[in-house]
């Protein structure tokens, strides 16, 4: 039985998000250790840790545009090569603030292209009936990557120093880029699942009926309808609140363990990775449940999305609240 190429693509995008979040968690761990060693104050630490996200937000929309223009496959490759080179070449020296600020800004810009490109690639390769679990598997790589970073990097920093984290991240980025270049491709029609489509007149027929002239295939984006759409803003708010909490957790969890709880990451064992590992498990469960509800027509796509998002956000808040009280 031939292994469908789209499964290879989904697996590679899963590894892609895994490596990206290994980088993000790795930097917060390595930089926190290096900054604390020379007495950098929390305000300056926060500035360095946040610079990634300024670059990240700036390149989201350009990333989607670039993926549509030149292809998500190429955008993914170029962005990975860029941030990997930066990690491999920039020294982790908290005293050199300008270099760190610029490097984190450009790493954020490079990684901001990744998720728009991934969604473009998955839209081309994955049929609707497999999309929920495919996207869930891909995005769950974020949480598994964060869990792996929390598990392995504290010991690496302790034994080989903070700069070693940058080296490992650069190597992982280059390795993924080589694998992606070798095994990824644009989707041929023969590999795509068959989907019944309504019959429409061919382009030649339309051209003949129009007297030999046919308009180019361009689609005008309804920006006004998008900007004033309540469902769009509901998705924006949902994403903002979730990722705000996630990124605060990723950036400040090492500091919280060290200063707030007086615990050493090196001595905590596997317990420090549990929040991220649970997110990895339940993200894939949610994707499988969503596809089941949709394909069996138990719920509509809209109701399924609303239900699972509500469950996820409620569970996240229930976990955060007692920890907030404890801190």
Set out the fold topology:
Blueprint: H1 5-37, H2 42-58, H3 60-70, H4 72-89, H5 97-112, H6 114-125, H7 131-160, H8 163-183, H9 203-209, H10 223-227, H11 230-260, H12 274-295, H13 301-326
Helix pairs in contact: 1-6, 1-7, 1-8, 1-11, 2-5, 3-4, 3-6, 4-5, 4-6, 4-8, 7-12, 12-13
Give a verbal description of the structure.
This is Major facilitator superfamily (MFS) profile domain-containing protein. Probable anion transporter. The chain crosses the membrane at residues 51-68, 75-92, 98-122, 134-153, 165-183, 226-253, 273-294. Its main location: membrane. Residues 9-327 form the Major facilitator superfamily (MFS) profile domain. This protein is an all-alpha fold and 327 residues long. The radius of gyration is 22 Å and the shape is globular. Helix content is 76%, strand content 0%. It has helices at residues 5-37, 42-58, 60-70, 72-89, 97-112, 114-125, 131-160, 163-183, 203-209, 223-227, 230-260, 274-295, 301-326.
